[in-house]
UniProtKB/TrEMBL annotation:
The keyword Isomerase does not apply. Residues 69-322 form the Phytase-like domain. Pfam families: Phytase-like. InterPro entries: Phytase-like_dom, UCP031900. This is Phytase-like domain-containing protein. Keywords: Signal. Residues 1-24 form the signal peptide.
Length: 340
């Protein structure tokens, strides 16, 4: 969802949809050349690396040539932190590899490809209402789940990290459609670890759809706790993504936008996994917060993974709203205070 007025770039070229047939029968798959600019320091006024419970590892801003790349709103990684898949809120996939230096610091995106997402009929999603993909999660080795905001639904694809030819199936989700507001629907999506209180269940959280008490609607899609729960909402903040830690706690990425003078902010809350049950109201401490004094933009995607040393890493990606006023960012942190 846009966080400020922006000038839109031209829509993807018609050639993107007519580019022919790629491997596996996918259409419109285009190679993308990514140019990255490193971000060596997260804080603009110091060389500090510690921000709340997180330690900044590195990151970069990036631009693309060869296809329309922007509006990135969800991110998943393979366990080694290299192969990635992202989704945009105009219904496109972006797949490739994260380049890293000898210390594991992310330096750029390689072997990138972009393709339109297919709908239930095998036809590319068309129009903002249908194509507003926001949440992205991986279940098992191969399955990709995507949540949509404007026409709320969750689709399941196959073929990580290149699900370009996959025709999805629709999953049942428990949040009543009447409770999901226009442009504030299903935003965050996460799959819990099998060895956790939720036993591998899928969780979704609305961006800004609230109950009478002002709490966010959320849902557990499957398992013994299947049903609706609520996340306490601070008035200034909206949910933008979520992912589970290896031990089963849920990290919720949130953002605030308060106009030109109020600025932009991002933060992460940690929700105890055992608290997430059908009918519960959950809350948790803020473990990270940043504003425009740091190198942030409209951060909408969060992926949690463990590196070779066993450290828990958080990789975040931003939605530039296809605006020259905003940036595509990939930022990475280590969770220093991980209670596993």
């Amino acid at each position: 969802m846009p966080v400020r007025p922006s000038l839109r770039l031209a829509a993807p070229l018609l050639a993107c949809l007519l580019a022919g047939t790629a491997e596996g029968g996918a259409t419109g798959v285009l190679p993308v050349t990514i140019t990255a600019q490193p971000i060596a320091a997260f804080d603009k006024g110091s060389k500090d690396t510690r921000f709340g419970a997180l330690r900044f590892v590195g990151g970069f801003s990036f631009t693309a040539r060869g296809a329309s790349v922007g509006g990135l709103s969800g991110l998943v990684l393979r366990h080694d932190g290299r192969d990635f898949l992202a989704v945009s809120d105009d219904g496109r996939w972006l797949s490739g590899r994260i380049a890293r230096d000898e210390n594991g610091v992310p330096t750029g995106l390689e072997e990138a490809e972009s393709a339109p997402m297919l709908g239930a009929g095998g036809v590319p999603l068309d129009g903002k209402t249908d194509a507003d993909a926001e949440g992205l999660a991986r279940r098992g080795a191969d399955e990709i789940l995507v949540s949509f905001e404007r026409r709320p639904r969750i689709l399941a694809y196959r073929g990580f990290p290149r699900p370009f030819a996959s025709v999805p199936e629709t999953l049942d989700q428990p949040v009543p459609l009447r409770e999901l507001r226009i442009n504030k629907g299903l935003e965050a999506l996460a799959v819990s670890p099998e060895a956790s209180p939720l036993e591998g269940a899928v969780v979704t959280i609305a961006e800004g759809s609230i109950d009478e008490a002002g709490n966010l609607f959320a849902g557990i899609l499957d398992g013994p706790q299947q049903g609706v729960f609520k996340l306490r909402k601070d008035e200034r903040w909206q949910a933008s993504d979520a992912d589970f830690l290896p031990g089963g706690d849920l990290l919720v990425l949130e953002r605030r936008y308060e106009g030109f003078f109020g600025g932009l902010g991002t933060r992460i809350r940690r929700i105890a996994g055992g608290d997430i049950t059908r009918g519960a109201l959950v809350d948790g401490p803020v473990i990270f917060e940043a504003d425009l004094g740091q190198e942030i933009d409209n951060l909408e995607g969060l992926a949690v993974w463990s590196d070779a040393s066993g450290a828990t890493r958080l990789t975040l990606i931003s939605d530039d709203n296809h605006s020259f006023l905003q940036r595509n960012l990939l930022l990475e942190f280590v969770l220093e205070d991980d209670r596993r």
